[in-house]
Fold this sequence. Notes:
Elements: H1 5-17, H2 21-30, E1 40-42, H3 50-53, H4 60-82, H5 96-104, H6 122-129, E2 132-137, E3 151-156, E4 205-210, H7 213-219, E5 227-235, E6 248-252, E7 267-269, E8 274-279, E9 282-288, E10 291-296, H8 315-322, E11 330-334, E12 347-350, H9 353-359, H10 361-364, E13 371-377, E14 380-388, E15 401-407, E16 410-416, E17 435-440, H11 446-452, H12 464-479, H13 481-495, H14 499-515, H15 517-523, E18 563-565, E19 573-579, E20 583-590, E21 605-613, E22 622-627, E23 630-636, E24 646-654, E25 662-671, E26 705-709, H16 714-718, E27 727-736, E28 739-749, H17 753-761, H18 766-792, H19 798-804, H20 816-839, H21 843-855
Parallel strand pairs: 2-11, 15-17, 19-25, 26-28
Antiparallel strand pairs: 1-6, 2-3, 3-10, 4-5, 4-10, 5-6, 5-7, 8-9, 11-12, 13-14, 13-22, 14-17, 15-16, 18-20, 20-23, 21-24, 22-23, 24-25, 27-28
Amino acid sequence: MGMGNDQVKKLALDLLRADSESEVINILQTAGLWEDRGLWRLYGDKAGNFATSGNQQSLPEASLVEKIVNSVDARLMSECLTRGLDPKSAEAPQTIRDAVATFFEGRRVETNESGTLAAWPAAKRTEHSRAITLAATGDRPTRGHSTKKMCLTITDLGEGQTPKRLPNTILSLNESNKQAVRFVQGKFNMGGSGALRFCGTQGLQLVISRRNPAIVDRENPEGGNLWGVTIVRREEPIDEAGAPVHSEFTYLAPVGADASPRKGAVLSFRADTLPLMPVHDDPYSKEVGWGTTIKLYEYETSAAGQSNILMKDGLLYALERLLPEIGLPVRLHECRGYKGEKERSFETPLAGLVVRLEEGRGDNLEDGFPLSVALRVADMDMKARIYAFKENRAATYLKNEGVIFTINGQAHGHLPKSIFSRPKRVGLPRLKDSLLVLVDCSALRIREREDLFMTSRDRLSKKPIRNDIEREIEEMLKTNPELRRLQERRREQDVSSKLSEEKPLEEVLNKVLRASPTLETLFLRGQRLSKPFNTGAGGGEGDEDGPKPQSKDFKGRKHPTFFKIAGRNYGSVFARNCELDRRVRITFETDVENQYFERAAYAGSFDLQIVEADREMSPGAHNFVLDNGKAHLNMALPREAQVGDRVVLMATVNDATLREPFVNMIRLTVTAKQDRPSGPKKKKQKRKGGGSGDGKSKTGIQLPRVIAVHEGDEWWEKHKFDSETACHAISDPVETVAGTHFEHTFYINVDNTALKTEMKYSRQDPRLLEAKFKYANVLLGLAMLHDTDSARGGAAATAADDAQSGEDEPDGDDGVADRIRRVTRSVAPVLLPMIDQLSGLDEEQLEELSVRGEDD
């Protein structure tokens, strides 16, 4: 292929500035490089490579993240190699955080804040973000559509590659390039190919790269000072019969292609620098002397279509959710002609969700958050951070993510926020839209990571370990004292202001239910329970009665002077029975601050070990949380435990400043599981009829609270009402000695369009129509709650737990509460006409209709 240096350089820059597939194809056709398939080499030198590339991330943003992670890896590799360190040696950093601390902070990892962007000043993050840039170019959308999709260009000042190395690095698949390098994220050598399927219809991706001269001087490879350029495309090969077969990705490699078909080399050229990086909203104006540029043409995104990438509904916030604690900052540039006078209108650093939350903590998070909880499941240690947003503040940062699992700061999968509404297992429905849990899985061993996450690194597996971890997270959320107190505060704030208006509604509803033997049999169960949570005093030995309010004036020490089981002295063994298949909850007393186990410097550690047992076993899954002078251990028995076993455990709390650790001994005796009543005992009532006739007793549904919601009310926005919404139900958990029950609150939209239409044209009193609408919706909701209860044989909202826990839940699916919302919305237009018209039928009309039917 005979092209001069200037011709190849011009080709590279023309392709860089092209912003559509048609432009790229035209440039390559003009150069005689598009039609001849012999000039294009198989991606990864593997036939059928679409099966690998196409089986990566399911969302375009997750695929884009892999490109960004590769750029971070390239920066760290460059810093390591320019220092003369072998990246695979023991002298090289062993983690990403260690690499960031070593290369950018001048220290090894010493504290929890070392090597984290959250500890960097904003100016330092801004400075280093200019070494990895992402620029959006092409047409910006106009009224929801655009003739061309957005193009994305990622450029890094990393190690770069020589033309000769490109087929074995950026353009390879399943190679072991970075397997032995401990401080990089990308190890499977295929995640970067996942973006190809989202590049328009042709799968076009430009690659321009040059090796860092400082590394070339050490390696001294032949031709190491050249730039390499190629472009990837998607082809449909033709079989011998002329029929298309499975797609394949190929890249332009015309040099020597005649002598070695499908094994040619990429184009190369000489240049001191190239304009590859953006300045403000000019995408290609900053000259760079090495590094790598990847351009993705007409890239699909699901983040608000193709809108401004820096806005709250744009690409920036989507990437922050997928990179909660990115290793190095990235600078995003919006270069599509959006108006703005300030520099920040065109560019901003991406430093991860954690940095954004930490910087806006006072305005966004509830007091006392984030919380830190240590988790252990199947000998796997993880750390969870719980963020609780103030009302209506989370939507800016989150979509449907509830629990995000991370490794080295990158999201590897998530559980939807509906996990917080699982009534029996979590019971935090009022916090569903306000919580985020980040679970750091970086400490997991390789095999554990492989079992928990898919290799695409964007979703969880369905192996049993995933269910075990999910169950422990549910238990952690359900029993966390601060979350339960926040749930109660939200409930009181939401409901208390309406209690004075509620009594007349309650009396009418009670009368409606009691007027029908069927309705009374189905629904009535008695008066409400007074409080959803037990918040009284207590907290003694092995107390399981719920969270106890601690003083707001509690000021914990930096280091504990005591840490012992409540009511016990050191040296004594705390003994108790524990039923098989039930959790053990033990309360400790201490004087240390709540951040002790998570803070940056001299963080404490908690360890639980079995020191004596009747058979070989490991500690069960457990979590441990500090709560204003208390510490709560919530533990499952070991899987191997049997009735009659005695298990002695040693709980140890330690940090680097303590002379001796705090040690507490626990002896558990395993007993048989005892059946417990499912609800409070009631007096037997005479049956008035209208039952199912099957002779089986069925519990009813507790009388709900009913709140009328008008447009403009605080509840309208809080519960996401619109003109078509009819009913929104929340089931608050109520804990008693007998178990967990639910107190239901129904929010009825009295500004519903269908109701307003009936009020406008009907001759009935508007107040009567409103009352019919309210109680009809309540009865529909109660019927669905009762049906769920009967079908599952348990508490009214258990269906969402059993059907979805441990599975991939549909986005936004909130179990029975979501079904109530959908069904009442759909039937609202016919509800009042159905009530009025059907109730007006008499025997004469019915007989007349029957006669007409026979005549027809």
